[in-house]
Amino acid sequence: MRALLFLLVSAISLLLTACGTSTHVDEYRVSESRLPVKASEKIVIMGRRHAGEYETEPDFIDCIGNKLVTGGQVAVMPEQQFLDSLYPWFEPRTAPLGLKRMGGMMRDPLIATRIRKLGIRYMIWVDGNTETTEKNGGFSCGLAPGGGGCFGFASWDKNSNYEAIIWDLSKLDEKGRVKVDSKGSSYLLAIGAPIPFIAQVQGEACEGIGTRLQSFFSSASQSRE
Amino acid sequence: MMPMNKNPATRLVSSLLLLTIVLLSGCSTNVTVNGDYPSALARKQPLHVGLVMDDQFSHYQFESTDDKQLPVTMALGESQVKLFSRVFADMFISTTTYNSPPAKNPALDLLIVPVVEEVQLATPFETKLNVYEVWIKYSLKVLDGNGQPIADWLMSSYGKTQSRFLKSDEEALNQATISALRDAGARLVLEFHRVPEVKRWLASRQADTQLSRSDIP
Known about the structure:
The structure holds 2 protein chains of 2 kinds.
Chain A: H1 2-18, E1 21-29, E2 35-37, E3 42-47, H2 58-70, E4 75-77, H3 79-85, H4 99-106, H5 109-118, E5 120-144, E6 147-168, E7 173-197, H6 201-214, E8 217-219, H7 220-224
Parallel strand pairs in A: 2-8, 3-4, 3-5
Antiparallel strand pairs in A: 1-7, 5-6, 6-7
Helix pairs in contact in A: 2-6
Chain B: H1 8-27, E1 29-32, E2 45-52, H2 55-58, E3 61-63, E4 72-75, H3 77-91, E5 92-98, E6 110-122, H4 124-127, E7 133-144, E8 149-160, H5 169-191, H6 196-215
Parallel strand pairs in B: 1-4, 2-5, 2-6
Antiparallel strand pairs in B: 3-4, 6-7, 7-8
Helix pairs in contact in B: 3-5
């Protein structure tokens, strides 16, 4: 009995260490100095959704936004609020893919005035997604008059790949890029009750990209210090 | 009152039939599309427009006919009326909506009659992803105030469920359809005046206006 318990504890410990996530973040800055954000200015973070096969998840965009806001440095406008305020210019089919097109749009007083009125200084475009790359194993559950239970083992790998590009709308130029690559394996062990060991791959990617983006900006109060 | 003299076999068949109906209805997806559409950021054309949305358009319901798919019923009439009314109000200085084409009305510059030509649906089973994809093809008949046809514009729109955890199939399909309707609104705002026949009509109207202005002594 002791041996079985020892085996089980060892297996769980092994799985817990194995379901960790590895995250790699790269960045490119046009200038070493931080990007100034006045108290009246905001940042908007937008997901790319023009490709047919994938789209950047709205909850991932929300997660980065929350990360920047909790950093306490800058004000972030929710993506949907921006999309609705500028409908239909930033819909999946109509959003500018490059600065040249964005420049063309900003020459239209209708769009430029609305963006200025909203106080948007920086636009961060995030492109990428999280996908399940490999699935193995399986488990089954059963129910009988005396009770029920599950038995089996399943594992799956997830990969998050995102790139964030910062545009300065007042100067219509690019200020930097952050790229994150996060991988992790999750497991589900079922001996009676299913015990999941989930790797927070997308959460780690959000943490990585959000923390790095925070370091790009300095609020008006920080600039004074 | 009918006597309850069913034999056990009949009862069993009835119960199985009832169970099958319950299970089948549990497998089908029924959605009444319900979305809010933002006001469009557009320069209003100086035109008085009549928008004809007949009963077929305002009560439009899509039902999947593909035997390989689970049955899907999607009522999008009310939602598309909401979208078209909003977008046209933002595109032109005045828009009047009608249930049926009005008699000749010289006060109107344009009369626009949208018709749903086709709706296509890709279900999660087909896409192998947890998303619905919706294509809507509209035909917009454009007439002048005298009822003379100007253009028949075929406009297609596309939308899909955004990749996030949704509680139900209905919610995922609703989101995909709202996305397709938003896309339709975007196309109306950005492409209507670029339709060659409409563009020509707008140019000739502008030329007429300039000519009549130059006639004033």
